[in-house]
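Quick review question:
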């Protein structure tokens, strides 16, 4: 097997040409065919994955590090945040919250 140098590879790329005539219709036809094939491949892939999920098969098996562990303290912190927000909303609605009205 003969190894080519980079200058030989560049010279080989320069030798690639269309021919004596440019044919844009052929080029567009090839591009459209490739685009249709890619769209078809995407549609088939999505149908296969949809059927895979509908039949109840696991897409990716869960690893040991991704177990759902409920942390009681974290849940309580979230509840406290929403309680504080609800209290603040009541203050806004009942006009007990001091606001500066720039229109007055």
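Suggested answer, residue by residue:
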């Amino acid at each position: 097997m003969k190894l080519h140098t980079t200058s030989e590879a560049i010279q080989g790329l320069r030798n690639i040409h269309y021919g004596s005539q440019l044919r844009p219709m052929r080029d567009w036809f090839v591009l459209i065919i490739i685009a249709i094939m890619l769209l078809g491949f995407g549609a088939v892939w999505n149908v296969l994955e949809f059927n895979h999920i509908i039949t109840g098969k696991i897409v990716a098996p869960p690893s040991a590090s991704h177990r759902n562990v409920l942390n009681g303290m974290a849940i309580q912190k979230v509840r406290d945040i929403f309680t504080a927000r609800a209290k603040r909303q009541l203050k806004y609605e009942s006009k007990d919250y001091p606001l500066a009205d720039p229109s007055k």
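Why it works: The chain has a mean pLDDT of 81. The longest helix spans residues 24-54.
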